[in-house]
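To: structure desk
From: M.T.
Subject: fold request, one chain
Message: Could you run this one when you get a chance? Sequence is below, nothing fancy, just the single chain.
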Amino acid sequence: MTTLELAKEIFRCADAVCFDVDSTVIREEGIDELAKFCGVGDAVREMTCNAMGGSVTFKTALTERLSIIKCSREQVNKLITDHPPQLTPGIKDLVERLHERNVKVFLISGGFRSIVEHVASQLGIPHDRVYANRLKFYFNGEYAGFDETQPTAESGGKGRVISMLKGKYGFEKVVMIGDGATDLEACPPASAFIGFGGNVVRPQVKERSLWYVTSFGELLKELEKI
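Reply: Done. Structure tokens follow.
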């Protein structure tokens, strides 16, 4: 069995599937959309590319970007209302199919919990299966930083979440699906990684992925083989 065949086999038999959110489950990068909404889009977009490419630590990139955005609670809520995240075609069907097979689905994101919970609701994923960063606000709603204790605030954080899930639920086969460097580095402890290039192709992730797909239809097709 080749490594590609093995990855496919693990996906078909997975106990749990963990998805990255930005540029994977949704078409955009949430932090870039928030920056654009707050009028600092260009300055932040370049930092996001660096973070996704792995050229700076994730926490450093997140701290720097948020210090430029300085979004208020009201701005975050208005972004979700006025510009709700756009689901990537096929994700809803894929999550439904996984749920039908009693596979646990988790969202593990370096983005923001308030936005990711909105996405989870659209996909029928319970909010206790969401792992993302928490923005902090002062009592008047102004930006006060982010919760640096969340594992997703650091490089390697997604892997720590997966290790925790394996310990908590006893999962043997966990698959991580995502577009970025922080997703790739979560395997191991993930049993398999599937690179996703349906919204943006990151060359270093594509090169290092045993299995790389550009649509969720490819994953649905794989499940039909069972």
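Reply (cont.): The first helix runs from residue 3 to 12. Let me know if you need anything else for the meeting.
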